């Protein structure tokens, strides 16, 4: 632009995947708008949100895509993954099944996404840890290590670790492409 403040050096496409109801949409709205929406969402079609951040003096626009409910019907298409440089692979720490399905999601990424895609494993709903925890953190650390993923637990509800996890992913992407 005229004053140079809206210069964008890079656009990084990031996809958010994982089972239904793990908190993908809430993570996205927490990172993009610092909001947690208590109303139910409209889930027609694929949507993305953006947030511009600075990494190593570069202006990076993160374009973060939500499946918008497609994952319910196993209909996440290869168009969704096209051009993605990063993926947030999300499970719910209170739902063992969402963790047990991770291998399937990693397979899907390996099949459809770019080979150099950077993957961040996210154990969401960390605010419910304690009585409701169904996935010990060690299990996730082991899985992440085996599969070569970064890992963080987050809470979209409280906001804990959400920015840090997205920023870590964006930094790692920058490291790959720069
Ligand atoms: P999606 O289907 O993966 O996009 O999941 P949503 O973002 O729609 O979230 C599913 C449900 O989990 C909703 O009722 C959210 O309010 C709730 N939820 C999402 N993130 C969190 C979180 O960090 N903590 C808690 N306690 N609930 C969450």
Question: Would you give an account of this structure?
Answer:
With 178 residues, this protein is of the alpha/beta class. It has a 6-stranded mixed beta sheet with strand order 2-3-1-4-5-6, sandwiched between helices. The longest helix is centred in the C-terminal third of the chain and has 16 residues. The model has no long low-confidence stretch (mean pLDDT 91). Guanosine-5'-diphosphate (GDP) binds next to α1. It comes from Eucalyptus globulus (Tasmanian blue gum). This is Ras-related protein RABA3. Belongs to the small GTPase superfamily. Rab family.
Overview in brief:
This protein has six helices and six strands; from the N terminus they run βαββαβααβαβα. With 178 residues, it is an alpha/beta fold.
């Amino acid at each position: 632009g005229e004053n140079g403040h809206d210069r964008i050096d890079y656009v990084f496409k990031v996809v958010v995947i994982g089972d239904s109801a793990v908190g993908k949409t809430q993570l996205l709205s927490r990172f993009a708008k610092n909001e947690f929406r208590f109303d139910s969402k409209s889930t027609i079609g694929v949507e993305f949100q953006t947030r511009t951040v600075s990494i190593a003096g570069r202006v990076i626009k993160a374009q973060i895509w939500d499946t918008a409910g497609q994952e319910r019907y196993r209909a996440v298409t290869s168009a969704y993954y096209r051009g993605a440089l990063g993926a947030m692979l999300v499970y719910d720490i209170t739902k063992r099944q969402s963790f047990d399905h991770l291998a399937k999601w990693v397979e899907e990424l390996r099949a459809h996404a770019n080979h150099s895609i950077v993957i961040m494993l996210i154990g969401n709903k960390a605010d419910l840890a304690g009585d409701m925890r169904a996935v010990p953190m060690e299990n996730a650390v082991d899985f992440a290590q085996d599969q070569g993923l970064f890992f963080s637990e987050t809470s979209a509800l409280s906001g804990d670790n959400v920015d840090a996890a997205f920023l870590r992913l964006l930094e790692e992407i920058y490291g790959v492409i720069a």
